Amino acid sequence: MEEQFILRVPPSVAERIDRLLNENASSSSEDKSLDLSFSEDGRTGTFAIGNDHFSASLLDLPTIVESYKTYDDNVLIKSADIGQIIMVREEGDNATDEVEYRHGLTPPMRDARRRRFRREPDLNPELVQRVERDLVNIMTGGTAENVDILYFYFRPALAS
After folding, report:
1. What domains sit in the chain, N to C, each tagged with a CATH number?
2. DSSP sequence for the chain
3. Predicted local distance difference test score (pLDDT) of residue 100
4. What pLDDT is attached to residue 74?
5. Structure confidence by residue, pLDDT tens digits, 33-62
6. What region holds the TAFII55 protein conserved region domain (predicted)?
7. Distance from C-alpha of 33 to C-alpha of 49, rounded to nearest angstrom
8. CA dihedral sign of residues 81, 84, 88, 92
9. Which of 88, 105, 109, 150 is deepest in the core (most CB within 10 A)?
């Protein structure tokens, strides 16, 4: 498996990256360098192309995306599972405090977690703690709290 990531950039930056990748090594351009560096929190950073710097953030995708490659245009070979995206923003765009990119990569995945995945049930935390405590008591040989234990005695049926 390879290590891969998805880099989503604004259209103006995408054109500059495309030009940089398609140019010959001998041609001169101000966009000769690409750099991506993250701060200590591992989620925010800067993306630099040439002398321009853009803010970037690492976000989790709502689902895992599989990446494939081919050598003969017939057989696809899975090369990676991608679960995160690096979002590069223009200077005027505000950074979000969220760590998950809600909308996935394509329009059908818009707000996918809310629309396609089961909601977590609303449970009373006190009830959960009480049940956990009762389970621990039962596993150690005790009984649950506030529970009445009824014993039933069965008489064997009389033979006729």
Report:
1. 6-119 (2.40.128)
2. -----EEE--HHHHHHHHHHHHS-TTS--S---EEEEE-TTSSEEEEEETTEEEEEEEEEEEEEEEEEEESSSS-EEEEEEEEEEEEEE-TTSPPPS-SB-TT-SSGGGTTHHHHHSPPPP---HHHHHHHHHHHHHHHTT---TT--------PPPPP-
3. 83
4. 94
5. 889 999 888 888 999 988 889 999 999 988
6. 1-146
7. 6
8. positive
9. 88
What order do you get walking across the sheet with 34-38 strand by strand? 6-8, 76-89, 52-70, 44-49, 34-38
- The rounded distance, in Å, linking the Cα atoms of 84 and 87 is 10
Neighbours of 31 (CB within 10 A): 16
Using one digit for the tens of pLDDT, what is the confidence trace for 114-131? 777 777 778 888 888 988
